[in-house]
Amino acid sequence: MTQGGQPPYNGDQFSELESVLRELLEAIRGLQPRRRPFRRGLTWVLAVCAAPIIAFYVVPSAHMAFTTADCYAKYWFLPSETQPSSSEWEKFGVTSVKALSPTAVSIRPSAVGDIWFGAVLPFTRYCDYTLSFSAELVGPLRPAAVGIIGYGYAIGARGTAINGIPSATTVQFDPPQGGLRTVPIPCCANRPGYNPQQLPGVVAGTLHRWALRVIGATAYVSFDGKGYGSMTLSHGNDVLVRVWNADVIIKNLVIRSLNPWP
Fold first, then answer.
1. Is residue 262 part of a domain?
2. In the chain, how long is the greatest CA-to-CA distance?
3. CA 19 → CA 25, 32, 43, 102, 262, distances in Å?
4. How many helices (H) and strands (E) does the chain have?
5. Does 87 share its domain with 175?
6. Residue 22, SS3?
7. What does the DSSP 8-state code read for residue 194?
8. 3-state secondary structure of 23
9. pLDDT tens-digit series, residues 151-189
């Protein structure tokens, strides 16, 4: 071993090792574990054996060995799709969260003021995933306050809320601004400089379709079937919805797993 505990491989040897590991992973994928129980078990053994090697030589952190194995396990052994119940949403701040049906939930402030309102959906089932749902804004609840606090809602992934304070990078559906804008919270909800991307149809009373492709610390956002952009995420485990001076109805939320080694 060389100084610092690193293996004494030169660049060519490292490339050969990485190539072998990639071939191993391709072979693992080719076993199609979801269809054959025996191959499922064999795949898990190979994944567990390969993950520490990948983590030590390709990723400079031993902790990644366990993360890699865990992600493969979640991808291979859990159902590839889940539809969380509307009862799983948890409020933060002084917020009303009401299940309208098993797949529809209403999230709205239950107090007056420019403070934090919203809800989180804890989610650790998959490492990387796509998040799709429909959302409708109802409001403003208090038209006289639009000039002061506006109205709208925001969507975030890998967020959290602690003591009623949300923390996430969010895409704001902002009718007074005439479009969507990416805003980290809690720091920057009311700061200037987060200019919106002007889009038609960003008004209350219309149903819109959202999709977020969450890969690592990045989410790729689609709005009504068109790409909006990407945003860098934080390190929480929750899907987060913030709402202000309005009611947002979230419908038909579906989360699908993504291959951890595409």
1. no
2. 70
3. 10, 21, 19, 47, 15
4. 4, 15
5. yes
6. helix
7. -
8. helix
9. 999 999 999 999 999 999 999 999 999 999 999 999 998
